[in-house]
Amino acid sequence: MNRDAFRRGLKRLEEYIDRLDEIATLDQARFLSDFMVHAAAERFLQLAIESILDLGNQIIAARELSEPTSYREIPLVLGRAGILPTDFAESLVPMVKFRNVLVHDYADLDLNLVHEIVVNRRQNLRQCLGYLSRYYAHDTTQPS
After folding, report:
1. How many separate domains does the chain show?
2. 8: domain CATH number?
3. Model-level pTM greater than 0.90?
4. Structural domain range at position 111
5. Is residue 143 assigned to a domain?
6. 129 assigned to some structural domain
7. Are the C-beta atoms of 61 and 1 separated by less than 8 Å?
8. In terms of Cα–Cα distance, which of 106, 110, 84, 5 is closest to 51?
């Protein structure tokens, strides 16, 4: 694992979550009526989830863990390896599935659901950032 690239990935993930934190302060009416706001929320959600998947894949490759056959398996592989708590890893699967909606079914996207995720579930992203950051800090198998 390239530790420098992993560190940069963690920093980007944190920036995306910080932007979602800002968007979460807006009321639902503004969120729903302002195209730029909900478009930014959609994009930052997508980027945050993809960052988690990318970081997870880096860990999986470096640790030579079982290769996931789909994106939704990435957190589960990390859970089985003890990098994420198993329950938490399972709770990320719906977020990964939502990433697929953001990427592929954006025309039918429910903006109320996007708002609900930004307001009530973005902390799962920050919690995952914490677990991945702790892994980075304690991984001594790779040179700096």
Report:
1. 1
2. 1.20.120.580
3. yes
4. 3-138
5. no
6. yes
7. yes
8. 5
List of residues 6+ apart from 32 with CB closer than 8 A: 38, 111, 112, 115
Report pLDDT for 127: 96
Q: How far is CA 56 from the centre of its chain?
A: 10
Residue 141, exposed/middle/buried by CB under 10 A (0-12, 13-18, 19+)? Answer: exposed
Q: Please give the span between the terminal C-alpha atoms of the chain, in angstroms, as a whole number.
A: 10
**pLDDT computed for residue 144 by the predictor:** 44
Q: Which two tokens stand for residue 101?
A: 């909606």
Kindly tell me the burial class for residue 88, based on how many C-beta atoms sit within 10 Å of its own C-beta (0-12, 13-18, 19 or more): middle
User: What is the 8-class DSSP label of residue 135?
Assistant: H
CB atoms closer than 10 angstroms to residue 125? 25
Q: Does some domain include residue 19?
A: yes
Q: How far is CA 22 from the centre of its chain?
A: 17
Mean pLDDT of the chain: 93
Q: What share of the chain is helix, strand, coil (3-state, %, to 5)?
A: 80, 0, 20
> Residue 144 domain-assigned?
no
